[in-house]
Amino acid sequence: MPEVDAVMAAIVGAAGLEPTLAAARAGKKVMLANKEVLVMAGELFMRAVREYGASLLPVDSEHNAIFQSLPGDFERGLPQCGVQKILLTASGGPFRNTPLADLANVTPDQACAHPNWVMGRKISVDSATMMNKGLEVIEARWLFDAPPEMIQVVVHPQSVIHSAVQYVDGSVLAQLGNPDMRTPIAYAMAWPERIAAGVEPLDLFKIARLDFVEPDFERFRCLQLAYEVLREGGTAPAILNAANEVAVAAFLDGKLPFLGIAQLDEAVLQALPAGPEGSLADVLAADAEARQIAHKMVRERCFA
């Protein structure tokens, strides 16, 4: 059997960490569709990519768009390439205009009804809380070696501009296209070439308009939490990710209200101090302890 040179890392959640890290240590071309790998162990994973000569290509539509909009030698440093800011677009999910008072009554089916993308239930809920975008902020920090202050989330309801890069000369380079995951998958598979992906060409006349607004951090507390743990560092992002996986599962099972997701995430972060991300064992231990605390809080309803 011929040796496999490339792998698509698409296992959902924390379960994807160890096999994806193993692929990097084997020096493979890793097409990364699992953001939790970099959220939980970004420093460890990027070190493995460098030390073992692996190639890393982002498949998330936003990070794939950023990758396409950056110069080919961006690894020498974003400031050295004239990059001023990474503009990470977000649809805002199904509740970007819902009155805050109505969010308390959101059902799982409503939260999973994304206006632009067809996704699994877990990632759909993360999009509704904008935790998904928060995890993508952390992912972008490691993929592009960008500090938190260089990553700006822009709510763009049409999901036509998948993300952009702002340069010091005033230029903004963006990747546009219909919201279809076949495009970033095809780009990663064929890179540095391009192949047909079966995606309908973008019709700018049909779109007619593009809207952009700042994210509401009061409405989307999960996004704010992601920025906070990114600045804290260590195992804090792994703790947030673990708590959120438990919270979303509890919400989908009817054991937690929609607004309880962010409340539980924050309560676990307060209950479990972050430690250094010294090894994979440290990350996995923080993940396990955070899950244990989160499950206990769900059972006892002692987090709100």
Draw up the topology in text.
Blueprint: E1 6-9, H1 17-25, E2 29-32, H2 36-51, E3 55-58, H3 61-69, E4 83-90, H4 108-111, H5 121-129, H6 131-143, E5 151-155, E6 161-167, E7 172-176, H7 182-190, H8 204-207, H9 221-232, H10 236-252, H11 260-271, H12 280-300
Parallel strand pairs: 1-2, 2-3, 4-5
Antiparallel strand pairs: 4-6, 6-7
Helix pairs in contact: 1-2, 2-6, 2-10, 5-10, 6-9, 10-11, 10-12, 11-12
Structure description:
This protein has helices spanning 17-25, 36-51, 61-69, 108-111, 121-129, 131-143, 182-190, 204-207, 221-232, 236-252, 260-271, 280-300; strands at residues 6-9, 29-32, 55-58, 83-90, 151-155, 161-167, 172-176. The chain is an alpha/beta fold. Strands 5-4-6-7 form a 4-stranded mixed beta sheet, with helices on one face. Strands 1-2-3 form a 3-stranded parallel beta sheet, with helices on both faces. Helix 1 (17-25) links the parallel strand 1 (6-9) and strand 2 (29-32). Helix 6 (131-143) packs parallel to helix 9, helix 10 (236-252) packs parallel to helix 12 (280-300) and helix 11 crosses helix 12 (280-300). The longest helix is centred in the last third of the chain and has 21 residues, at 280-300. The termini are far apart.
Low-confidence stretches: none
Beta percentage is 5-15%
Helicity, as a percent range? 40-55%
Main sheet summary: 4 strands, mixed
CA(first)-CA(last) distance: 54 Å
SS-based class:
alpha/beta
User: What is the strand tally?
Assistant: 7
Order of helices and strands: EHEHEHEHHHEEEHHHHHH
Major sheet strand order: 5-4-6-7
Radius of gyration: 19 Å
Mean pLDDT over the full residue set: 93
Instruction: Estimate the global geometry from the Cα principal axes.
Output: globular
Discrete helix count: 12
